[in-house]
Amino acid sequence: MISTLISLPYEIARLPFVVVDNGLADRLPETSGVRVSLNRAIGSADQLAGSLFGNPGIAERGAARIERSDALVTAARLEQEAESQREQARETAAAGARKAAQKRRAAQSRAAAGLDEAEAAEARGKREAEAAAKKAAAAKKAAADRRAKSRAATIQERKQRADSAATTKKRAAQRTAKTQLDEARETKQAAADARADAKRLSDLAEAKKQERKDS
Known about the structure:
3 helices, IF2 family translation initiation factor, about 95% helix, about 220 residues, mainly alpha
């Protein structure tokens, strides 16, 4: 009873601070800086007053206020940390989803590029095959043309040799015939000359015979 009477002036002096705290209750949460500071001040004052006035109830009331305020602050801090972790987890999940989507798009792009490349390679292969076939056909035709020209040249050369041989034979035959003709003419002329000589000798012998008869 005496401690209560002694602490009455303190309770009266404390009342405005409690009224202020109650007035802030509708406007600020207990974890706000203003209310935390106010609760700590009131709680510390209660602990000091309880110790000075020998009133454990006041001291316990102050300790409870401080403990409750600390617990609320700790809970708010833990909740904020949990929310931060949840936000980080959401960001990590979103980043993972974005990365996965990027990988899917990259894979789709690579697949599309691979398909385009395969189609381009196939078209290129077809063009190269066609070009190779045309080149081979042109080479075969050129080789065939060369063989045909070679055969034609060989045939022409053989024909020229045959014509030359025939011409040579013809000329040789003509020379032989001319020679034989010339020889025949010479032989005929020689025969005629021989006959003429024989006739002259005969005439001469007949003339001499006649002369002898006449003498």
